[in-house]
Design a protein that fits this description.
With 182 residues, the protein is an alpha/beta fold. It is built from 4 helices and 10 strands, in the order ββαβββαβαβαβββ. 31% of the residues are buried.
Length: 182
């Protein structure tokens, strides 16, 4: 069964001119957490031409990214994998989308450390990937408050300090996130 979640967005952050709403589809094999990781990744990495789960129509790159920003030659400039991603897939992305900034976003620091260990064992290229973990406590609170239609007002998103301040369905949240390189 497929579920759809609508997120009505409002930005009070001058650096993020968010669209008024986005729709995120939860496939039958996905947990709600995957939908929410996509939402937070969208808010954190937002920039012009950011797209969600778009078919690249490229025989060389057969993967469908969770989030992607294409450059003017329609090549990935930013590629974000949310929740599930393997070191094998990340390694292939580093070759196939060689110009792209590649990120893997997880809901907790322990999941990032597990992925880091797997990437080390798989001998993934170093200094090629960004890894990001979200605040697991806030993530749980947001997960419990999620409905089919949700209102999100973004106030602050500071990538350098790893801070996300937002109102989610009428409840204020201060979320921290950590980013690191691999």
């Amino acid at each position: 069964m497929v579920s759809k979640f609508v997120f009505n967005l409002q930005s009070h952050d001058n650096r993020r001119d968010l669209p008024s709403k986005i729709l995120i589809v939860q496939r039958s094999d996905e947990e709600l957490e995957v939908v929410l990781i996509r939402l937070f990744a969208y808010l954190i990495f937002y920039r012009d031409r950011l797209q969600m789960e778009v078919d690249l129509h490229d025989d060389y790159i057969r993967f469908v990214p969770d989030l992607v920003q294409l450059d003017y030659q329609l090549q990935p400039a930013l590629w974000v994998e949310c929740a599930e991603c393997t070191p094998t897939k990340l390694n292939k992305l580093a070759v196939k989308a060689h110009e792209a900034e590649i990120w893997a976003v997880k809901k907790s620091e322990s999941e990032v450390e597990e992925l880091r260990t797997q990437m080390t064992k798989a001998k993934c290229r170093t200094d090629r990937y960004g890894l990001m973990s979200l605040d697991e406590v806030v993530f749980g609170d947001v997960s419990r408050a999620t409905k089919a239609r949700n209102d999100v007002a973004l106030y602050v998103c500071d990538f350098e300090d790893g801070v996300l301040q937002f109102d989610y369905n009428g409840i204020w949240h201060d979320m921290t996130f950590r980013s690191s390189r691999f």
